[in-house]
Write a structure and sequence with these properties.
Blueprint: E1 3-7, E2 10-13, E3 18-25, E4 33-39, E5 46-51, E6 58-60, E7 68-73, E8 78-83, E9 92-99, E10 110-111, E11 115-120
Length: about 120
């Protein structure tokens, strides 16, 4: 059974940093497209970052490019999201996602329960 469990969210002041972690089980992170989505109150789900299986490698949503960094540890079977220079508009529930496909997309097959990031100004 595929499971994704996020941790590392919480309150942070604008300009600060947080590191989210996702422990994966039931599959190997190196074999799947894996990434992070987020959903802010009253807004649609948004792709944040992805490690794809295609030649594109990693990619980021435009609003986080240059501030966030996605990485994985195949030995630990974990996924991470380092978030720097946080802004109030980054406030959202962040979801770890995975899929057998080549790249991340809104209909990813597997989702964690999410972890809340709350950035105050």
């Amino acid at each position: 059974e595929v499971q994704l469990v996020e941790s590392g969210g919480g309150p942070v002041q604008a300009g600060g940093s947080l590191r989210l972690s996702c422990v994966a089980s039931g599959f190997s992170v190196g074999d799947y497209a894996i990434g992070w989505f987020r959903q802010a109150p009253g807004k649609e789900r948004e792709g944040v970052a992805c490690i794809s299986k295609s030649e594109a490698g990693t990619y980021y949503g435009g609003s986080v490019k240059g501030r966030f960094n996605i990485s994985s540890d195949n030995a630990r079977n974990e996924l991470y999201l380092q978030m720097n220079s946080l802004k109030p508009e980054d406030t959202a529930v962040y979801y770890c996602v995975a899929d057998r496909g080549l790249r991340c997309y809104p209909g990813m097959r597997y989702w964690g329960k999410g972890t809340l990031v709350n950035v105050s100004s």
